[in-house]
Amino acid sequence: MIVSRNPYNGEEVASVKEFNKKEIDEALEAADKRFQSWRQTSFSERSKLMMSAAAELKKNKQEYAETITLEMGKPITQLLPKLRNVRGFVSTMLKMQKSIWQRKLLKQMQRRAILPLSLLVLFWP
Asked: Is the whole-model pTM more than 0.70?
């Protein structure tokens, strides 16, 4: 068993069964299959899922803060403000990612441009 202990007092917080090599390989294979599917997910759908996850974290911030406090020994007063701001953080990160993605796509389109750049910009979302 792998045991997670509260670093402040050494008490056991949780324990999980150790995987053998076969179980690790199976878990890695399942993760890779899921990743291949995730790669095909549109940016719009990914954004919705990430914002939903952020909303879940914010909605249950007290529960998550208590768990993190037990596992890390960090004072809960330091965690709650971070969990309150998680939705804004995720939103900012998604906007930045979209901007990076758009610049990369624009460069690719310029390299293969059939239309002049001015026309591409007119129709850019």
From this structure: no
**What is the token pair recorded at 108?**
């690719």
Structure tokens at 107: 């460069």
pLDDT, averaged in runs of 10, over the chain (125 residues): 86 89 92 88 83 83 84 80 75 75 66 49 44
C-alpha dihedral sign at 36, 40, 43, 44: negative
Convert 15-70 into a string of H (helix), E (strand) and C (coil).
EECCCCHHHHHHHHHHHHHHHHHHHCCCHHHHHHHHHHHHHHHHHCHHHHHHHHHH
* Cα angle: 18, vertex 24, 29; to 5 degrees: 155
